[in-house]
Amino acid sequence: RAARGDAPIEALIRAALDIADDFTPQELANVVWALPQVGAKDQQLVQKLALVARHRVQQFTPQGLGMVALGFSSLGVFS
What we know:
Blueprint lengths: L6 H13 L5 H13 L5 H14 L5 H13 L5
Helix pairs in contact: 1-3, 2-3, 2-4
């Protein structure tokens, strides 16, 4: 979760949850990579993004796949 009271981050998390299914592979990679950069760790969003990424894994570029792996790793998904 974002820091308590961080309304802009919470709003981004809610918005991302609403539109995650519509993300292109590049948008998905960007969001997954950016989450740990802004200190946002929302379990529901991470699970949703992981599900979407799993269904689109064949569509990622090598760079996009690397960004997704780094983002999820930084969020502790693989620990």
